[in-house]
Amino acid sequence: MRAEPAQTSYAAIAIAVPVRRLFTYAVAPALGPALAAGSRVRVPFGPRKVVGTVVEWPAPPPAADVEVWFIACLDVSARREAAFEKLGNILGFVAAYILGPDPEGRGVPPELVPGVRELRASYTTRQREMDPTLVKRLGLFDYLRARLAVAGTPDDCIAQVRAAEAAGATQLMFTVSLAADPAGTVELFGREVLPALPRS
After folding, report:
1. Whether 150 and 113 share a structural domain
2. Percent of residues, the chain, with pLDDT higher than 90
3. Are residues 28 and 101 in the same domain?
4. Domain of 13, in residue numbers
5. Same domain, 31 and 87
6. What is the C-alpha to C-alpha distance for residues 133 and 169, in angstroms, rounded to an integer?
7. pLDDT digit string, tens, across residues 151-180
8. Mean pLDDT of the chain
């Protein structure tokens, strides 16, 4: 008599990468009893292993036809400093309204939560009063840039888009509304970044 194959179980894991989604992993039967929501686990992620948090266990199996969108602030320039000059404006806007209401629930590292709360309390949407240095003064610039933006030189942007794809993104959408040079950003992205990316 043949034994029935063991049914595959899955866990939904939150990982601190710049893509707003959970990642579904198959769980070896021997590990299942040790898992619970809130467990910290090490999981493969591209070429490396990272620490994640179990959000749902057991979780539904992954759906192959789900599109995963990465929506990011875009600013491209031949000079990295030029792309970063006004990037703080859009990072502050997005972070204040996307992460600000519940930074812990959005996966913001604990040491950055006070800065995100301060950002939400002090950020303005009045364009003439925007301060692009605010997120730097609060120690949030590098974190927010990695999580919410594709910005820098064309080579920087190529690497960031590839990282998003490695993290599971299947579709990309950008905002250039507060870029230092919106038209120039779109033109340079189309000329030097898009041709270097795989076409589906």
Report:
1. yes
2. 53
3. no
4. 9-59
5. no
6. 29
7. 999 999 999 999 888 877 888 899 998 899
8. 87
Pairing of strands 149-152, 40-45: unpaired
pLDDT computed for residue 2 by the predictor: 43
Residue by residue, DSSP assigns 14-54 as EE-SSS-S-EEEEE-TTTGGG--TT-EEEEEETTEEEEEEE
Same domain? For 39 and 104 the reply is no
Residue 103's alpha-carbon distances to 97, 107, 108, 132, 191, in angstroms, are 10, 6, 5, 21, 36
121 plus 169 within the same structural domain:
yes
pLDDT band for 4, please (50, 70, 90 cuts). Answer: very low
Q: 51 and 115: one domain?
A: no
pLDDT of residue 89: 92
CB atoms within 10 A of CB 97: 12
For 62-82, the pLDDT digits (tens) are 766 566 778 899 999 999 999
Same domain, 89 and 26: no
* Matching residue, tokens 């040491």: 111
Helix (H) or strand (E) holding 144: helix 141-148
Q: 64 in a domain, yes or no? A: no
Q: Band of the pLDDT at 181, cuts 50, 70, 90?
A: very high
- 3-state class (DSSP) for residue 102: coil
Q: Using CA atoms, how far apart are residues 168 and 165, in angstroms rounded to an integer? A: 5
Cα distance between residue 132 and residue 92, in whole Å: 8
CA distance 67 to 65: 6
